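Photosystem I assembly protein Ycf4
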Amino acid sequence: MIKRTERIFREDIIDSQSIFNYIFSLVLFAGSVGFFLVGLFSYFLYDHLLFIKISNIVFFPQGLTMLFYGTLGLIFSLYQIVILFYKVGDGFNEFNKEKNIMIIYRKGFPGKKGEVYIENSLSDIESIRVEIKTEFFNTRQIIFVCLQGNYSIPVFQFKEPLSISEVEQKASELASFLKVPVKG
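Structure:
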């Protein structure tokens, strides 16, 4: 969501809060628990797990493989659930002419160094750069703020591919607010 006044340009970044991410995490967790339990029960020769007769599964190699993949799936699904819970990646980009500062903030995992907070003077901004790379299944569209000394900071990275004109429109809107040129 973009909030723009004459003196402040701010965009809130909401990264991970899509219904697909929640469903994917839940399905991955449920499948991983199933694989883990089948592998574990085949080791202990426990015969029944809900509607599956496990005596047909020998621990080595099938049960061990299922235990391994179940463990990996649990690790990945719990990691994804923690990312969703803590809203890792959410934050904002703010360009404030009143205070003459640019603030880029992103949430991270809890802890001392869990957040990204970058603050620069608006007078250090030389230009806005647009990078569009199209590969076979991967399109990267990023808008950078170019600072003095050849530093570039990505401020907008689009998850869903936009048309080139929409990306350029967003870059030109930011550039006109900052009164700097756009480089392609």
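Helices lie at 19-43, 59-86, 164-178.
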